[in-house]
Task: structure prediction
Amino acid sequence: MDKRAVNELKRSSNCRERERGFSLLQILVVVAIVGIVTSFAIVSIARSRDNIRLQGSVRQLASYIEKARLDSIRRHATGTELASVTFTDSSTYSVKMDFDGMGNVTTRSFSLESGVSIISTPLPSLTFDWRGRTSACTITFALQNSGGDQSWVDVSDAGDVTVNSDVDVLPTVSYANVNSTSDIASGTVVSGSTVRSNSVDCGGSSSGTTAPPITGQGTSGGTACSMTANPSAVTIKKGGGSTGTIALSTTGSGSYTITTSGPSNIQISPTSKTLSGGGSANFTVKSLNNTRGTFAVNFSSSCTTVTTSVKITN
Result:
């Protein structure tokens, strides 16, 4: 066989090889890669959709809080005519104000986006006087979507609304003294020496404010028992800046397995503990991120459930 014939046979063999296409193994590898990429894309899209719903809910809520505040100022509202924003449950809130600008105060109900809810306790309620101020110091509450992403809203006693910001106290700055007789007009002088900030009303301490113990009564196996949490409320700093300790004690006979639950931004350690009647144990709470507000932490056993409050500050 001459060289030309050999080359022709080789070309024919190569053509047949190419005509065979892909092997089953190659196809399976490609399908697996496509499946993995698609799964990541679906998860990413779902996470983005959840986050859009969260931010949309927060923006709408903040907008109505601002509108209610300005409405009270515009109308110089008093008594039952004060504008307000009140949560009726974890995903629904009512806004009371003059919506049409004609002096008719009505109440309308609004809902957060699907999967978004308030995780703070108690449910926020804001009422603005004719100066646009609230009756309380800074109110902070947090919202969470179904993917676990969180956002928080601050409403200061002056009525200022901020989202995901640190507004508990004014920054440390120096203030220049002015001469009221020569530097400013006499008609604009306001008596008093207090610098207006939230820290005057609320205090900036977050070193571990506590509250009296709370006790729950119940029965286990037909025997009366009780469980006490001490303290019933504790204040800690955001992002693990400080921790709080809650002591749990039980009365009764037998043993009780105490399980804990709370929002995802709070770490409770240990997550469970078994105590005999008359026993006690300490549980530590710690903030895992920058979300601020007041949150409920539950301690449950076959006897009863007690709920403590954990306030997270700057």
User: Anything to note?
Assistant: The mean pLDDT is 83. The first helix runs from residue 3 to 19.
